[in-house]
Amino acid sequence: MIRLLAAVAMVLAAGAARAEPVRLTLDELLQRVEETSPVMEIARAKLADYQAQFDRAYYAWTPSLRVDSILAPLPERKALRTCIVGIYTDPSTGGALDEVGACPGQDVEADERITADTEIGILTRTTARLTFPIYTFGRVEHGLEAARAGLEVGQGGLDVARGMLHYRVKQAWYGAQLAASALDILQDGRKRFREAKAGIEKELDRESGRFTSNDLRKLIVEEADLESSLLETEALEAVAWSGLRIAAGLPPGAAIQLDSLDLEPVHVEARAAEAYVEMAIDARPELRMARAGIEARAALVDLAEAEFLPNIALVGAFGYAKGTPAYDPPDPFANDNYNYLSWGVVIGLDWRIDFATLTSSLGRARAALSKQRAEHDALMQEVRLKVLEQVGTMQRRARELDVRELAMKAAKGWLVSNTLNFGLGLVSTDELLKSLVAYSKARLTYYRTIYEYNLAVARLSQSVGTELAVPAPEDE
User: Fold this and answer.
1) Which of 17, 187, 290, 391 is the most exposed place for a label (fewest CB within 10 A)?
2) Total-model pTM
3) d(CA 168, CA 9)
């Protein structure tokens, strides 16, 4: 059984290895993560909830219908026969009137008693009430305004989730490119170390006197540090690729390729710092949500004020009852709860006069509006400071790129010169090692600075709510 499972695992592994790798651009990866991320699903669900609330407010003007219907057993109800049982004299006028009562010989209580001979029938009763709002003193309009602002809040939440995911994906993307660049640099350094090591060992074997055993030992010590950095970088690269697979919605171990592993600085159009602040004020999702929150709270204040006024509506009523064992009197004015048909249309007024509750609700709505405005102002200050700080970081990284590029070129020239002179015996091992380490560090620092610069642009893009990285002009 174990051998069978091992064979199946080997076949699956071989199939995965032969599978065509998924090749993605950054834009394609961002699109995939928007479609598959649970974070986006949560934001879409919240937006759908706001949409449902908006639909409810939008159709608040439509008539409401309430229908109540029952079906129950009903014992027979007999008609009470009436007769003239005497003469009634009005003491104020002296006039005589016939006095009506139960005819002689009837048992008045027999109708209320159920015996073995009592007939059991069915009672069905249905009432319907159709209410059509005519004038609500702005309740419908204010509720619709609040619901529309809620939609804006939901859309802002979706944009917040999208911006957060975009930043994380870019972080993994640039991290994978940085790891690939670092591996190339470290592997190049390993190659140069091995070449220098082989040259020293060859001279030692020849006993030329150019090098000593200490020269070889120094090289071995420095090489160990390089190998350690190489192992650490490989581990970081594996983590970065795992993050990319998760972002792309691919299973663990799935083959994936980036359209380019070259880590290059993104292009950003030159703007003043205040221009970025203005962009954030216009497009940052959190600020749009805060402004929509103010609109919603203001509408709720108006709604709370409208609650002091009545609702005017057109009301249509319908009633029907039928009791099969109940006597249906022919008198249209008789009060019969078992057999009737009624309907009518009226204009009604619904006014709840509870000033304590209404005043409290209005006060709370106004307090919530004041709080929302204060939170918006505080967020504005926070965004301004944060954007200015991030703009400074991005600009500093951009200037640092020029410095690091110049240092990398100088270190390369130093290494090339020392390598040639080392072969001629004009440079010591220490000098060669210094230039080799300096060049490797300069290259690593340069690419690390590109990574930090690209992340600074991505972070600023998230803060202003607009993608700042654009294709560079063709003449650049």
Assistant:
1) 17
2) 0.76
3) 33
